[in-house]
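User: Show me an example of a complex going from sequences to structure tokens.

Assistant: Sure. Here are the input components:
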Amino acid sequence: MKTVNKPRLAIDMDDVIADSMTLILNKYNKEYNTNLSKNDLHGKTIYDLIPTEHIPAIKHYQNTRGFYKDVPLIPQANHAIPELTTKYDIFIVSAALEFPNSLPDRFDFIGDHFPMIPWNNIVFCGNKQIVKADYIIDDMLENINSYSTKGFLFSAYHNIGIEHENRVEDWEHAIKLLEFIK
Amino acid sequence: MKTVNKPRLAIDMDDVIADSMTLILNKYNKEYNTNLSKNDLHGKTIYDLIPTEHIPAIKHYQNTRGFYKDVPLIPQANHAIPELTTKYDIFIVSAALEFPNSLPDRFDFIGDHFPMIPWNNIVFCGNKQIVKADYIIDDMLENINSYSTKGFLFSAYHNIGIEHENRVEDWEHAIKLLEFIK
């Protein structure tokens, strides 16, 4: 059902609804015979942890067609988003243009797990400054700051330690906070 | 060079910088042994012209990986856009999410013909209402009207006959008009 009068909520993809880092770590651990986990990434990105010469491999995974097909869901995202659609016009907004070959897989992931999100409500971009929304949920502070409206920082391994007035710990917490916005 | 203070100009893709309709007509004519050209499409879309049962074929072409690789340029777009980057922060904004398998090819097309447009300045969406720009150039009136800012209607076969106060006939005309905006 088309509902144009709801406030628009832009929801990020990687580390917010899609657990891309688990996918990347699994592949990296297999290829380099390591045993890295998200626990090693508190307050860091994977690029802080691996040898510089391995960075192109990480980028390559993310731009390989098919790689993103097996990305796991972030817990509860598939319960929270249908619930939030009753109050918000939800757009999935992913700055995934750095990895153009992942776009068809990302599209399929959204369709498979969030069939209530129509394709019209998907945005793949490079710079979120261009997106107009009333509220956003994103794990990257720079993305939140590039919107002019209220942003919720979704907790992820790499943003632990960053102070933010609207941090949401997980999708259950997000629902509680977003229900009370008038 | 990153220039954040220029006004943002959102430029559409199909029938504005990429001559997608020529590509589609060539494929359709070959498959159905017809001889349709853009001259047959004045004031119409291809869907007005072909039997209803052929519509899925047209949609299928557009969502086939590789199909978009051979899309021709709209004349002068490759000269106009580098010139306009001196005055505008240009984003290519394509509502191409209906055809997700075309996205990697579209990305390559932009990179090949417009290397001055960084990947950060590409947006693939479904609904242009979500895009924030100062000016837009688009061949679809509904897209122009969904932005809140000044839009230029780029002349295309299907929009002949629509009255618009800011119609641009071609890229030479677009440059002339856009140079004079203060």
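The lines above are the inputs; the final block is the predicted structure for all two components together. The interface with chain B takes residues 8, 10, 65, 91, 93, 97-98, 100-101, 103-104, 107-108, 118-127, 129-133 of chain A (CB under 8 Å).
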